[in-house]
Amino acid sequence: MAEAGWEIYAAAAGALAITIAIYFGERAYRYIRMKENKHVGTYGFNFEKE
């Protein structure tokens, strides 16, 4: 089996970076919506602020 070139590692790192950026972007959006007491996509659960 041949060794993986640096391109494979760069592509994997890029895909991981994009995935993490999307995750944190959605998380920030959700926290902003909660702070404004607006509906948040909570996958069927209700968020009640104390």
Task: Give a structural overview.
The protein has 50 residues and is mostly helical. It has one helix at residues 6-35.
SSE map:
Blueprint: H1 6-35
Structural descriptors:
50 residues
- Overall pLDDT level: 83
Number of strand segments: 0
Low-confidence stretches: none
How much strand content do the residues show? under 5%
The largest β sheet comes out as:
none
Radius of gyration: 18 Å
Shape: rod-shaped
Count of helices? 1
By secondary-structure content and strand pairing, the structural class works out as: mainly alpha
What is the element string, with H for helices and E for strands?
A: H
- C-alpha termini separation: 57 Å
Percentage of residues assigned to helices:
55-70%
Question: How would you briefly describe this protein structure?
Answer:
The protein has 50 residues and is mainly α.
